[in-house]
């Protein structure tokens, strides 16, 4: 048995057959005939000196050797595919794929993207709104915008402003809720998407910031921040809204923030890409636009007394 690797076409055939556990489906994936795929796997078995599959009447199953080889083949081709895509992206200055959370996409990015598109008509911009942590080496994604603490080891990371939270409600509801004490009897909306923050940045924390001992337990709960803000816009109640999620509704008058006390988290949004990729023209353009858009509304923070959560006494 030779120590040299067999031809990649044979390994590719094995990888597809091991994933599908079907020669016919593997042949269909690779756009070859089942006979051609079977020939490639047979040549691989001859190179190895032992069978990789047991051929049954209407199915196949991996032998012990096949089970040992399959994980390495899957990982190897995935790594090769990622490297190939990364190299191809190096020469591409016209397309840009960005991933961000659904809430940020809906409440902050989507309403502003027309400005970026107008300024850069040469860039084909694609968005993936997901909370899944994308692998910037393996997934076909150029930029990730994520909220939290990090760390972002092995990536170019540009942190932007920390997030603060303050109660927001419709102007109509604000006529009835005129003091923090009034919030005791108001319908309070809970955003469970930030439950991971430590120290907590919830209603109980905000009440302690205004010297009130009150820990609400009732009220609608939402797993996505944009849904909580949409509920507040609809008049359902008062939401403890994050800066990025409420800024557009505040500036356009759909929501008001009558109590100028905000609590600031240590978490923030970060602009992430592979090291060196920040120099690619389309990524640099998007980064500069992203930072500039945040700075456009930075002055709104001046109207609030912003208290870091770590400075608020615990319950």
Give a written overview of the molecule.
The chain has 315 residues and is α/β, with parallel strands linked by helices. It is 39% helix and 21% strand. The chain has 11 helices and 11 strands. It has helices at 8-20, 23-30, 34-48, 64-90, 102-109, 113-119, 171-174, 203-209, 225-233, 243-251, 281-296; strands spanning 53-55, 60-62, 95-100, 124-129, 143-148, 156-168, 188-191, 221-222, 238-242, 261-273, 305-308. The strands form 2 sheets. Strands 3, 4, 5, 6, 7, 8, 9, 10 and 11 form a 9-stranded mixed beta sheet that branches. Helix 8 (203-209) links the parallel strand 7 (188-191) and strand 8 (221-222). Helix 1 packs across helix 2 (23-30), helix 2 packs across helix 3 (34-48) and helix 5 (102-109) packs parallel to helix 10. The termini are far apart. The relative contact order is 0.13. The model has no long low-confidence stretch (mean pLDDT 91).
Topology:
Layout: H1 8-20, H2 23-30, H3 34-48, E1 53-55, E2 60-62, H4 64-90, E3 95-100, H5 102-109, H6 113-119, E4 124-129, E5 143-148, E6 156-168, H7 171-174, E7 188-191, H8 203-209, E8 221-222, H9 225-233, E9 238-242, H10 243-251, E10 261-273, H11 281-296, E11 305-308
Parallel strand pairs: 3-4, 3-5, 7-8, 7-9, 10-11
Antiparallel strand pairs: 1-2, 5-10, 6-9, 6-10
Question: TL;DR?
Answer:
The protein has 315 residues and is of the alpha/beta class. Helix content is 39%, strand content 21%.
